[in-house]
Amino acid sequence: xxxxxxxxxxxxxxxxxxxxxxxxxxxxxxxxxxxxxxxxxxxxxxxxxxxxxxxxxxxxxxxxxxxxxxxxxxxxxxxxxxxxxxxxxxxxxxxxxxxxxxxxxxxxxxxxxxxxxxxxxxxxxxxxxxxxxxxxxxxxxxxxxxxxxxxxxxxxxxxxxxxxxxxxxxxxxxxxxxxxxxxxxxxxxxxxxxxxxxxxxxxxxxxxxxxxxxxxxxxxxxxxxxxxxxxxxxxxxxxxxxxxxxxxxxxxxxxxxxxxxxxxxxxxxxxxxxxxxxxxxxxxxxxxxxxxxxxxxxxxxxxxxxxxxxxxxxxxxxxxxxxxxxxxxxxxxxxxxxxxxxxxxxxxxx
Length: 350
What we know:
Elements: E1 2-6, E2 9-15, H1 21-27, E3 33-36, H2 42-51, E4 56-59, H3 65-72, E5 81-82, H4 84-90, E6 93-96, H5 100-113, E7 119-122, H6 126-129, H7 131-134, E8 143-149, H8 153-161, E9 166-174, H9 180-190, E10 193-198, H10 201-213, H11 218-233, H12 238-260, H13 262-267, H14 271-301, H15 303-312, H16 317-330, H17 332-342
Parallel strand pairs: 3-4, 3-6, 4-5, 6-7, 7-8, 9-10
Antiparallel strand pairs: 1-2, 2-10, 8-9
């Protein structure tokens, strides 16, 4: 691993320079990687590994929309596309990429398919960390590891195709073979990670659940909605409110942050924007800090896990989810967003 300075803290990371794809292929040359679940992460990781020369098969419930998606993506039934149980039986690395609720329900079948020396691979620390709620306790004679891409499956695939990759964490929970870390890193490189940094199953799930509910999705959408509503309340048009709330952020400012950092973005906006943002930054930080404290405690206590498993195990979950998302889709703010996106130059009709 390479030692890299992150601010004032030195961390050890794995880069493609020290662990190239050729080495990953050598480590995995005798493995059959069974990707169990073709939902969010499954398609990206499976396709990326396949295109990187890894022996990959997919396990997915049939019939289902995800089975049809796997067929559309070029996987062939009976060749490299099987039921979840058959793929698990064939694989030497079982990438357990079902939803967290799905992992809990399928675990009694999956544990029977694990053979001595196999690897059980996760992309989330949920099932292992909250074993008292999920029941996921692997036997002692297998490796257990995770590689957690720091982005959605869509981003994992998109970044792979453009050659940039996406960062990922990795962890080893159980090392039976003495090769668990090497296998995990090889899999991370094979799915296209930009670089890999070490963590633990517990730290991964604590940070991930906090991030998803916080700034990555929940807090971001909540803060956007609050600002949009204030602007509309004071007579600003939907177009103006959406552009000042979402469009300028996603199409301009956040790209500058991604490329050069927040300080650079501050330095390269108007002096009026600089002054106001610097003055209001601590007020927003201090206002939301107690909410983040409550959120983190809810994650650590297992309350968020209880909610996830309860809601996502409901047989009507997808129907209920569609109703919740429809409320967001039909809101004035996101209808305005659809109109704004249609007017981007790349969507103009000549």
